[in-house]
Amino acid sequence: MKYSYSPAQSIEKLDPKVAQLCVTEEKESYVLRQEYGRNVVRLGVEDRKSVTRRQLILLARRGIALAKSQKIKRLAVSLADFTFPHLRMSEMEIGELFAVNFEMANYEFVKYKTLPKGGWSMVEEIVVYGKVGKEGKKGIEKGRIVGEEVNVARTLSNTPGGEMTPRVLAKAAQDAAKNTNVLVRILGLKEIQKLSMGGVLGVAKGSLEEPRFIILEYWGGRKKERPIVLVGKGVTFDTGGLNIKPGDAMNEMHMDMSGGAAVLLAVVLSAKLGLKKNVVALVPAVENMPSGSSYRPGDILRTMSGKTIEVLNTDAEGRIILADALTYAKKYRPRLVVDVATLAGATMSALGQRASAIYTRDEKLEKLFRELGEESGDYVWPLPLWDEYEEDIKGTFGDVINLGKTKYGGAITGAIFLYQFAKDYPWVHIDICPRMTSIEGEFLAKGATGVPVRLLAKMLERL
């Protein structure tokens, strides 16, 4: 979207063709057409003093959703109208929050649709009128950039698996990093073999598409500063392998690389925001397919770390490829590693679809990520990572098994499995399975959500 500024102190001084977006103390939200022709998108808030930050995020999205429903192309907004003193948000914070969520609510995945006669319903311009300081404009510009990168991640995740292969995901990473000072390296099959990444190689065996190991590096901080490493699951399509998924569980599995998309775009976003940090993204990219060459239940894979994985189920493949990526992360002597993955469907049983799960042994990091989740809108909630759970993944014929010994606690056994490969550095695991796709009431287009790009951006700023 385009953002422009008008010094006009009241809506009456703007072109009547520009619709107004405003907050009113009413129960309902609706679009009113005034006598002289201006459309007014009225967002109902019964009690301004009770509005929370979470509600403010939805308020911004609702405004765009209402405008789109009436094919309104230009919206006028006064930041003062959306200022709620009890939230203690600076003008920059308000501008950023609204721009991020305007962009996210305005997004639709239309790449494969025929353009309708009247064009798409998206809003084209936001006119910010009234008093807007330098910090407010800075916040809006930052929010626009963050929102755009979140939407790029959504587009990558929404792309059908037949077109989003490991090779294409690697190319998309290169394209996303163009015109930035992000360094991109793509490791192919021979290089992955040379690194003895038995996890990546094992999962990829069943596909005609060769694996890729995608590396993005942004060196924006001091030379001696140890980087933050982001690791993302890049399964570009997950059939479950020989333990094949039922049909109704497979139709969204082109989004099983959403964690990989998120970390790639978080690094690009760091560069675009000019963060003075050193950040690295690592994405093992594979297809998990059934064929005569597929890895099998009962196989034992030797990972880059030397540890062996006893495969009990080929549909628990994400943790297998992440094991190699978490080992590779040690090369950077990281001060923190954060991995992001659609890892365990059981996480949805624990948390529903409104928050991602986080796991860490560091209570300060857990507290920080929860706070930043609230700030960004990428909400997270902790689950345990106790020593006792390690017993549940001890192998019989290999060091670890890729599935728990019982049908219970699948979300936790996935995380404790990853922890076996992440004990040499501070580590946070984010399971975004619950937040992979949008749900009713959050005013986002159906499909990928781009979680947790916003959270990672906040984290990289704060640490």
Explain what you see.
Helices cover 32% and strands 19% of the residues. The longest helix has 25 residues, at 134-158. The protein is elongated, with a radius of gyration of 23 Å. α1 packs across α2 (91-106) and α2 runs parallel beside α3. It has two domains: 2-130, Leucine Aminopeptidase, subunit E, domain 1, CATH 3.40.220.10; 150-462, 3-Layer(aba) Sandwich (Aminopeptidase), CATH 3.40.630.10. The strands form three sheets. Strands 7, 8, 9, 10, 11, 14, 15, 16 and 18 form a nine-stranded mixed beta sheet that branches. Strands 1-6-5-2-4-3 form a six-stranded mixed beta sheet, with helices on one face. The protein has a three-stranded mixed beta sheet with strand order 12-13-17. The mean pLDDT is 96. The two termini are 30 Å apart. The chain is built from twelve helices and 18 strands. It is of the alpha/beta class and 463 residues long.
Summarize this structure briefly.
With 463 residues, the protein is an alpha/beta fold.
Uncertain stretches: none
CATH superfamily of the largest domain: Zn peptidases
Order of helices and strands: EEEEHEHEHHEHHEEEHEEEHEHEHEEHEH
Cα shape: elongated
Helix content estimate: 25-40%
Mean pLDDT over all positions: 96
β-sheet strand percentage: 15-25%
The span between the termini is 30 Å
Strand-pairing-aware structural class? alpha/beta
What's the helix count? 12
**Total beta strands:** 18
State the major sheet: 9 strands, mixed
CATH topology of the largest domain: Aminopeptidase
The second-level CATH architecture of the largest domain is 3-Layer(aba) Sandwich
Oligomer: single chain
CATH C-level category of the largest domain: Alpha Beta
Measured on Cα atoms, how large is the radius of gyration?
23 Å
- Compute the number of structural domains: 2
